[in-house]
Amino acid sequence: MEGRVLKTVDVSHDTEPERRQMLWADAVYIRDIACWRNLSSESLLKLALILHEQYGSFDFAAKLMQVRDERIGSDSHRAYLNRLGLLPHP
Q1: E-strand spans in the chain?
Q2: Residue 57, exposed/middle/buried by CB under 10 A (0-12, 13-18, 19+)?
Q3: In Å, how far from its chain's centre is CA 18?
Q4: What is the phi/psi pair of residue 24, to 5°?
Q5: Other CB atoms within 10 A of residue 18 CB
Q6: Per-residue pLDDT of the chain (90 residues; tens, 9 = 90+)
């Protein structure tokens, strides 16, 4: 999100004389989570990679990997979270 500082009218009880006003923002729209099970295993992995690398969306990347893991019988999402330091070491 980006914005500009907005100078407010001096009010004696206002502790923040400068306010930020949002002027523009970027948004990323992803498929509905309920539809992820309809994606191919390859698409799940590709979407996880994009969300990880481009947007730092580690939670969604891990969930996509978990959906894939359930399908193919692996446990890569736990290894991913462990690598990020989000799971305690075994």
Answers
A1: 2-7, 18-24
A2: middle
A3: 29
A4: -155, 160
A5: 8
A6: 666 665 655 555 555 545 566 677 778 888 788 899 999 999 999 999 999 999 999 999 999 999 999 999 999 999 999 999 988 765
